[in-house]
Amino acid sequence: MIQQFIDRMPKIDLHCHLDGSLSPATIRVLAERVGIDLPDDPKDLTAMLTAPEDCSSLVEYLTRFELPVACLQTAENFYTAALDLASDAASENVIYIEVRFAPLLSAHERLPADVVVRSVIEGLEEGKRRFGVKYGLILCAMRHHPHEMNEQLLPLAEKYLGSGVVALDLAGDEKGYPACKHHQLFADALKRGIPYTIHAGEADGPGSIWSALDLGARRIGHGISAKDDPELMKHCAAKGIGFELCPVSNLQTKAARDWDDYPFRLFLDEGMTVTVNTDNRTVSNTNLTREFTELDARYGLTTAEIERLVRTSAAVSFADDQLKQELNKAFDMFLAEYQSAEN
Ligand SMILES: [Zn+2]
After folding, report:
1. Which of 92, 98, 202, 294 is catalytic?
2. Does 202 participate in catalysis according to the annotation?
3. Domain over 2-342 is classified CATH 3.20.20.140
4. Alpha-carbon distance 272 to 262, whole Å?
5. pTM
6. Measured by CB atoms within 10 angstroms of the end CB, which terminus of the chain is less buried, N or C?
7. Measured in angstroms, how far is the CA atom of residue 53 from the centroid of ligand 1?
8. pLDDT tens-place string over residues 66-123
């Protein structure tokens, strides 16, 4: 019964990387266009794109991004990639998705970052038109990029804010490059009224999450290591900081050792603001249906709990108030239909 509820409910994904979520079929199309040779055997291609369940570390996990990033080097490929992701999300009733990617990993002299961002917005816009999936685009600054590079994202985010882009993010090697190195970027974003989330507490301890909060982040990507700091959990609960959990990915990258070590129930019990997301649909071989199914298998969810998680996603999303209302209304309608079918 719960499975039917999970399958059919309207879903919201707040943490989904474009490059980690391209289907193998789309990768074939993109690779052919840019002249990259791929293995003929689908199994070999999947092995290049999907991290094993018993992945040894975040470093091994990140190798699965090499091929997608190599394919994402033309405006046309970005458009196709974004449209493909919207189609994939629609197939499991995602009604709103915040897609993120790092434009500066692909931009070069002949492909300005502005064109890259515009192409992704056009792909997502076409996805909205064809499949009804609403979206917000998040531009990722990279931890290992110097400030002079990351600050190029500020005018871009500002230009497309309200017409596709909803926020900035900080991604990449969390252990090697502390968030505080990027304080200027986020101080400027704050000044310009650009919202942001920051990846933290995935590959580093609670101190990394405190740094992200110091920079003014209202949402945290993953945030798993908060489980080791009671004061931090209390603080985040009181402030309503949105935690973007991505359970399948978090276990693969060893952000948590195993399900017993996973802080899903702990965070909820602490009164924290928890959302459930995919991170990378292809690299982690997941989607929101699987994420909720796995959580249900481990923790036994009720429909009321699932409803609360989805509504929390709407509440802490970067969508405007009108869209948030629409998302809640879509869930109201689903519930009414589901309940009348039950009786
Ligand atoms: Zn992520």
Report:
1. 202
2. yes
3. yes
4. 14
5. 0.97
6. C
7. 17
8. 999 999 999 999 999 999 999 999 999 999 999 999 999 999 989 999 999 999 999 9
